[in-house]
Every structure is written in C-alpha cells, then in structure tokens.
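This section describes the prediction task in plain terms. A model, or a person checking by hand, is given the sequence of a single protein chain and must write out its three-dimensional structure as a string of tokens. No templates, partner chains or ligands are provided. The sample shown here is typical of the held-out split.
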Amino acid sequence: MSNSAFATALARESVRIHKDPKAHLVGIAGAGMSSLAEVLDAAGWEISGSDLNGRFAAGSRFQVHALHDAEHVDEELDVLVHSDAVPEDNPEVVRARALGISVLNYPQMLGRLMESQRGAAIAGTHGKSTTTAMAGEILSTAGFDPTVVCGARSIVGNSTGQFGRGRWMLAEACEYRDNFRHLNPQLAVILGIEPDHFDCFATPGELEAAFARFAARVPDDGLVLARADCTATTRAIANLRCATESFGFAPSATWHATELRERQGFYTFQIRYGERMVCEVKLHVPGRHNVLNALAAAALASRCGASAAAIRGGLERFAGLRRRLQLLGEVRQVAILDDYAHHPTEVVATLSTIRQMYPERRLWCVFQPHQASRTRYLLDEFAASLHNADKVIVSEIVRARETAEPTGEVTAALLAARVAERGGDALQLASAAEIHDHLRQSLRPGDVVVTMGAGDIGRIAHELGQGLRTYRQAG
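The expected answer:
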C-alpha cells in the first residue's frame, strides 16, 4: 500500500488528499482506532487524535489530546475518523463537518483502506484478534509484507497495526452495528456465531442474517472459510455464490487438526488439508481454542499464497497478544494472568486452559462483567462458566455504550449470587481497591489469579503484582 493507492481509494468517496496527508482520530485509544493510527502513521500520514482516556501507546509520536475540543481540528485535515463510541454531536466531529472535512467512522475508514489492497477479513464472535495476528505472522514469515489491522496489542513489539507494502491487508471484521458491511474482502473467515451484542441484534436470526450479508460481500471468485461445527455459521453461508471451505477438529472439515498432544495447556498438532498433511505445529500460546484459531489462520494464509513452511514458522513464532491469556508473572509463588474474556464461551475456554497450565493449584477469577444487557441475557451461562474457578470475585458491571436501566436490573451482586447458588465460592466487591486488598489478604503461595473482562480490570492484575513485590520487600 502507498499514499497514492490509498488516496485513489479515498478520492472515490470525495475525500480530498494533500501531498502530505493528515488524519485526526477521535477516540484514538480504542483498540481498532489505535491500530488504524499506527498503520496510517507508518504509511506516512500525519496523525493527531483525542481520547477521554487521555492515554495512548507508550512512546507514541502522535499528538493526543485528553479532551474533545473543536480547536483540535486542523483546517488542513484530509479526514477525521471517529470510533463508534463517539456521538455525532462531538465538538470535533461537528467542527470537521462545518469545515467541509470528510468525516468517516472507523469501519468506513477501514473499508476505504482495504480498497487499496486485496482484503482478508476475519469475523466471528470469538478469536478475531488472535486469528488476525496469527495470519499476519504467517504472511510476514512468507515475506508477503501484509498490512494488518488488529484489535489487540502484540506481546512482542507492543503494536496493534502493521503497515505493509504487499498485496494483502488483514483486518478484523466486527459484527457490532453491522460494521463489517463496510468491508469488501476477497477472502473472509467466520470463526463462529453466538449471540453477544444484545444492544444491536434482538434475535439470533438477526445476528445470523448480518453474518450472511457480510459473507455475501465476498465476490464470486473469492472464498469464505467457515467453522465446521457451528450450525449458525453453516446457515449463514448456505446461499453463497463464492467458494467455501471449512475448518475444525472433525476429519470431515476441509482444514482440520489431528494428532493433538497437550502439555500444561500448550498444544502440538498436525494441520491437514483434506487427506494431505500440511505441517506439524507447536504453538507457544496455550489453549485448545487457539488450535482452532491457528487452523483458521493457516487456511487463510494458505489461500493468500503462504507455503507450509511459512505456516509452521509463523505459527511457532507467534508469541501472543496482550490481555489474551497473558501471563504477567509469578510473584511470591502466585501466578498472575490477564484475559479479555467477556462472554461465557470465552470464560470457559480461559478457565479450562488455566486448569491445564496449573493443575492442582487454587484458581482465583476476578471477573468484570461487560454491559448490563449481555450480563442479563447470559446470566445463567456466566454463572455456569465461572463455576470452574475455586474463588470468584465479581466487580461492578462496565456499562460500555449503555445508560442506566430501571430499578431491578441485573447487578454484579446478582451474578455473584448465581455462582454461589451453583456451589461456587463467590463474592461481589465494588471497587478496585477493595478487590486488591482482599486478594493481598487472602492469597497464599501456589495460588493462580486471573483478571478477566473487556474493561479496565487488567489494571488490578498489574497493581497486584507490584503490591505483592512491595509486600515481600517490606517483609
């Protein structure tokens, strides 16, 4: 990709492009937005941004404002991009429109960016970030120099976005608000479909229909790779005109894993295409669910032209992403992990993997529910998934994109009570300080702690590690 190629794609949408293009990103600290910022910056754009979180990646060269203000909008901007969390009456958005500057939301900008390369989009309820990053690692190993827009930071390098001059662009395709409708990929992956965004899709049928529309955006000469054992995915791709292939653990899947061997949560396995053995892989990220992600990444990269050697090399080089079963360290013989799981299926996968990694050790799970609507609709499923931990602490619900509901709504205390009703040891603590104090007083050598959720719960894991170190030094 180059500035000229990107400029051509944007020009079709009446976006003016200067010789030295400028973009301002409102909500720049968000996962997708920060990745976009890194890609544009590496492509030679001048980037500025704003975010109420008042933070961005350490060492960032971008000018990032901690408040939204119309004065942050430069009249010479080529485009202002805003996240889904930013309302239309945001002062920077209003100012840009008044100046005649093109205003695009994040998925629209991602779609324009994809038009300048051959696109591969990774969709599904779970595993998008990991699969995207894995496929990017394979294509980089193959020497294809891809552009990668990923929703999580790599553990090695601390990057979310990768700018490449090769022909392929890999990007997460999110179903929230039907956002993936802005993408026109040559290749698409559907990792599975489960109800998740209850503020967008009233029924499972509506959700499946959205995925069907996304899959239909792949041209007739393109390909959709679909999870074999997901009936919702099978229904969503039933009427496609393009080719389809499946991936999964069953031998009937086009791409499948065989000869799985597990050691303390880490898997070695063979990747097969039909009856042909492609390669054997030893993953350095734990969990059986990551075998499935690796299969999808391998299938996608193969269709981009990657060799079996590149598939094996890329997957074995992949060191993981931050907040995806990330081991932060072991302090005073207490292992501390952090994970992004915020759906019952993800909670089950994470806790099951930790059990494999640390058998016979007492497991604490500090869970932060994400959205009252998700918690309400999946209350019993969450209670069942959390039951696999020995000790459960439920923090307050993060109301991302939500307003307060009427009295009697679901609460964090209700979730903790449901876990206890199933025989679990659960309590609800309101503040991070209370959680931190309770853990410091209750943990003992040999314990394992995982903080879990899509909000800011990971800060407790980092603070806990530092607190235990200080406690040991003081003692």
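For orientation: The first strand starts at residue 22 and ends at 26.
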